Model the fold of this input.
Amino acid sequence: MDRMREPGSAVSERRAASELPPRPASFEAFFEAEHERLFRALYLVTGNAQEAEELMQDAFVAVWERWDRVSAMDEPTGYLFRSAMNRFRSRLRRASRAARRAAGSDPGGDAFAAADERDAVARALARLPERQRSAIVLTELLGYGSEEAGRILGVKDVTVRSLASQARAALRIHLEDRDE
Done:
């Protein structure tokens, strides 16, 4: 058996140790090493430089507040990126809730009928598979283009268009069943 492939050999342990990224000496060094990569990743996800900058700053503040624990982690960069993406998802959820509230605020008409309609749409959306629901919410409710929605979901723009089309068809069926 080859010594380099033995799981407990000194050679494989040295190789594994050398593949781990070096631990950052200070928060400042960590920031210098990671801020540009994080900004680029967030810009790809958001499509907006200002939003990417804000998310990056928020994520670095969160890491800085917990630096004593984060610096001791095997992958502090992973924690940083996860923190930034969690903040991004939180913003999307808040925007989605705000859009739903704004879409439901019709000054005239029957308030009870409007509430019933919103409930029916929410129930129909809940019945969709998660990927279809995400695609339709991003493109129809939040107004993202298929390219932007694809970056957010991590799929191609053609996949977003397909998922949104499938979601619209399923919503028509769910909502027509309700009307009968």
